[in-house]
Design brief:
With 412 residues, the chain is an alpha/beta fold. The protein is built from 14 helices and 15 strands. The strands form 2 sheets. It has a 9-stranded mixed β-sheet. A 6-stranded parallel β-sheet has the order 3-2-1-4-5-6, with helices on both faces.
C-alpha cells in the first residue's frame, strides 16, 4: 500500500520527513486565517487543494495566502485542485491528509462525516451543527474518529489559551469552591449584509448572506456566542445543564436583508445541583454601544472574570487576587500547532465531545427563545428539527423563513 493511502498518523514521521497535505473547505476570512495558521504549524506541510461554493471566494483566499511570505512557498494549489460547488468538499478531502472545515456550520456534519469516512484528520471550525440531528451526527462521527485514531480539533479556540487553561485548572482544583453562578456575556456591534443581486437565486443569496439564516448559521448565538458558553461549560468540568429558558427578538434587525434571525438573546441555564448560568448576547449597531466578551464565575470560595482582555481577567480565590502571569499565546495558532503535533507523534486529539455538546448548549437557547418554552437537554438532543434545505441545488426554491414568534412557533 502506498504511503499516501495510509492514515497520516502512520505515514508521517516525527522527524518531519513526510509532507502532510492540507485541504481547505470554506474560503472566507476564517478559512483563510485557519489555512495560514495550519501552514505555520509544521515545517513540512503543503496546502494542495481548496474548495468553496463560490469561485470568487476561493480565488480571493488563495491570493491572500500567497501574499503571506512566511507560508507562500508551502502553497501548491494548481487550477485542477481548486474546486467549486456543493461537491467540492469530496474532491478536496480525497486529495489530502488533513482537512480544514470552515464553511457555514450547516454543512459541518456532512463534511466531517465524509472526512472521517475517508480516514482524514480534521480541523472543524465552531459550531459543528445548527440542529439536534446535526449534533447527533457529529457525535457519532467523532466516536468513529476515535476508533480510527484520527485527530479532530475544534475551532473553540479559547480552550487553547494558556490563560484560560490555568484558570480552569485552578477552578477544577477547587480553589473557587463549588460554582454557584456563571454569566456569559457577548455584546457586539452589527455585521455585514450583502444586497441581493439581479438574477441571484434563493440559494446563492442565502449562502452569500449565510449568517442570517438558521439552516446555515444556527442564529448568531449559536454561530458566535458559543465561544463563551463553551468556556462556562468548561469551568463546570464539561457537565452540561439540564434545562434552559430563553428570550430574544429583533430590536434592530427588522428588515428583509437580515433574514429571520434575532439580534439579542437572554438565557437562564440550570444544572441538576441548582447552579445557574445567565447568558446575554446581542449584535446591534451604534458607536456608543457597550462591548464585552467575557465569562463571570462565582463560587463558594471566590469569584472571577474570565476575559481575553488581560486587564479585565482577574480571579479572587479565598479573598486573594490572582492574575495569570504566564506567557500569553496566540490560541488560534496553538490549536493548529497541537493538531499537527498530534499527527506527527501519532497521539490523536479528539475534541468531539465538548465541541458537540457546547454547540447543543447554544442551540437549546435558540429553541427556547424561538418557541417560548422551557427546553431540556434531552429535548434538544433528541429534537427532530432538521434545518437542511430540501436539496443542495442552485435552483431550489428557498422561501424566506418567517421570524420566530415565542408562544406561536412550535418545538420540533
Amino acid at each position: 500500500m502506498a504511503a499516501s493511502a495510509l492514515p497520516v498518523h502512520r505515514a508521517a514521521h516525527a522527524a518531519g520527513s513526510d509532507i502532510i497535505r492540507i485541504g481547505l473547505i470554506g474560503c472566507g476570512g476564517r478559512g483563510t486565517g485557519a489555512a495560514g495558521q495550519a501552514l505555520r504549524a509544521d515545517p513540512n506541510v503543503k496546502l494542495v487543494a481548496m474548495g468553496d461554493a463560490f469561485a470568487d471566494r476561493l480565488d480571493n483566499s488563495l491570493k491572500s495566502l500567497q501574499t503571506q511570505k512566511e507560508v507562500a512557498d508551502k502553497i501548491d494549489v494548481p487550477k485542477e485542485h481548486r474546486f467549486v460547488g456543493f461537491d467540492a468538499f469530496k474532491k478536496v478531502i480525497d486529495r489530502v491528509d488533513v482537512v480544514l472545515l470552515a464553511t457555514p456550520p450547516g454543512f459541518r456534519p456532512i463534511h466531517i462525516k465524509y472526512a472521517v469516512d475517508q480516514n482524514k484528520h480534521v480541523f472543524a471550525e465552531k459550531p459543528i451543527a445548527v440542529d439536534g440531528p446535526g449534533v447527533r451526527s457529529v457525535l457519532k462521527t467523532c466516536a468513529e474518529a476515535k476508533k480510527k485514531k484520527l485527530s479532530i480539533v475544534s475551532g473553540l479556540c479559547l480552550r487553547y489559551y494558556n490563560c484560560f487553561q490555568e484558570t480552569a485548572k485552578r477552578i477544577h482544583d477547587g480553589q473557587m469552591g463549588d460554582l454557584v453562578t456563571l454569566q456569559a456575556c457577548d455584546y457586539r456591534g452589527q455585521i455585514w449584509v450583502k444586497p441581493r443581486q439581479p438574477n441571484q437565486t434563493d440559494m446563492e443569496y442565502q449562502m452569500r448572506n449565510w449568517y442570517y439564516y438558521t439552516w446555515l448559521s444556527g442564529d448568531f448565538n449559536v454561530e458566535q456566542h458559543v465561544h463563551f458558553l463553551d468556556v462556562c461549560a468548561w469551568m463546570m468540568q464539561d457537565v452540561y445543564p439540564k434545562r434552559c429558558v430563553a428570550m430574544g427578538g429583533r430590536a434592530q434587525r427588522r428588515g428583509k436583508e437580515f433574514g429571520h434571525i434575532y439580534d439579542h438573546f437572554s438565557t437562564m441555564y440550570e444544572w441538576d445541583n441548582g447552579t445557574r448560568l445567565f447568558s446575554d448576547t446581542r449584535q446591534i449597531r451604534g458607536r456608543q454601544n457597550y462591548r464585552e466578551m467575557s465569562a463571570h464565575v462565582a463560587g463558594t470560595k471566590g469569584r472571577g472574570v474570565i476575559s481575553e482582555s488581560h486587564r479585565k481577567h482577574i480571579m479572587h480565590f479565598d479573598g486573594k487576587e490572582w492574575r495569570f502571569s504566564g506567557k500569553h499565546n496566540n490560541f488560534y495558532q496553538t490549536e493548529h500547532d497541537e493538531l499537527f503535533r498530534s499527527i506527527r507523534e501519532g497521539k490523536p486529539i479528539n475534541n468531539g465531545e465538548y465541541m458537540c455538546k457546547s454547540t447543543l448548549l447554544a442551540i437549546m437557547a435558540r429553541m427556547s427563545a424561538y418557541t417560548g418554552r422551557e427546553i431540556t437537554w434531552d429535548m434538544a438532543m433528541n429534537s427532530k428539527e432538521d434545518l437542511s434545505p430540501p436539496r443542495y441545488d442552485w435552483q431550489v426554491k428557498l422561501p424566506e423563513p418567517p421570524v420566530a414568534v415565542p408562544g406561536v412557533t412550535p418545538f420540533a
